[in-house]
Amino acid sequence: MPDETMVERPGGREVKDADDRAVKEGREMQSELRREGAGGAADDSQRDAGERRKQEHVIGPVSDFPDGSHRVVDVDGRQIGVFNIRGSFHALPNICPHQTGPVCEAKQVVGTLVATEKTDWDPEWVKDGEVLICPWHGLEYHIPTGQCLAFPNIKLRRYDVSVEDDQVVIRLSSRASPSK
Fold first, then answer.
1. What's the DSSP call for residue 149?
2. Sign (positive or negative) of CA dihedral 2, 93, 155, 29
3. How far apart (Å, rounded) are the C-alpha atoms in residues 87 and 68?
4. Residue 11 domain flag
5. Domain assignment of residue 178, yes or no
6. CA distance linking residue 22 with residue 25, whole number of Å
7. From CA 94, how far away is CA 99, in angstroms rounded?
8. pLDDT 10s per residue in the chain (180 long)?
9. For the chain, what percentages of helix, strand and coil (3-state, to nearest 5) are there?
């Protein structure tokens, strides 16, 4: 377990070292998304096949991901949340576009309340087991689509994930080599 000593910041704010590390990692991931031209809104599964080569990464047996569970894995230096929702696997980056929080480290996956004219503005529970809530500031994301429920212009990247020979496999676009 990382050392989580409290440190004082300008203005008297105390934060844990682990929080500082998470912010730094989030900023690095945000820079990576910008370099890839994704801005957090692209979907690896929809990129032109000739544009980038896909690399497969076996992340573990299906038994490591029981129905209704999720966990964060490191794939090629990227923190990725892998979710099993009723036998369907989904993978999202572990970074919230709001303030680079570790969105996939949420304790649980839930649903959300929606009130519409169709329900006469009475709230109804929807998307049960499909909503991820960022632990930093509470933004909600629909896991299967990556869509932020509060802001239609914010969408998390989705990664290709499948089950092959009882193994969970993620496909990532290979990273472009820096040009000299």
1. S
2. positive
3. 8
4. yes
5. no
6. 5
7. 12
8. 344 334 444 444 444 444 455 455 555 655 555 544 444 444 444 444 445 578 999 999 999 999 999 999 999 889 999 999 999 999 999 999 988 999 999 988 988 899 999 999 999 998 989 999 999 999 999 999 999 999 999 999 999 999 999 999 999 986 555 554
9. 20, 40, 40
Q: What is the CATH number of the domain that holds 70?
A: 2.102.10.10
| Cα-based angle 139, 106, 92 (whole degrees, multiple of 5) | 75
At position 167, the amino acid (one-letter code) is: Q
The two structure tokens encoding residue 96: 């919230």
Question: How many domains is the chain partitioned into structurally?
Answer: 1
This prediction's pTM: 0.67
What residues does 124 pair with on adjacent strands? 114
- Cβ neighbours of residue 128 closer than 8 Å, sequence gap 6 or more: 110, 111
N-terminal to C-terminal alpha carbon distance within the chain: 39
Domain of 141, in residue numbers = 6-173
- Residue 171, strand partner residues: 56, 160
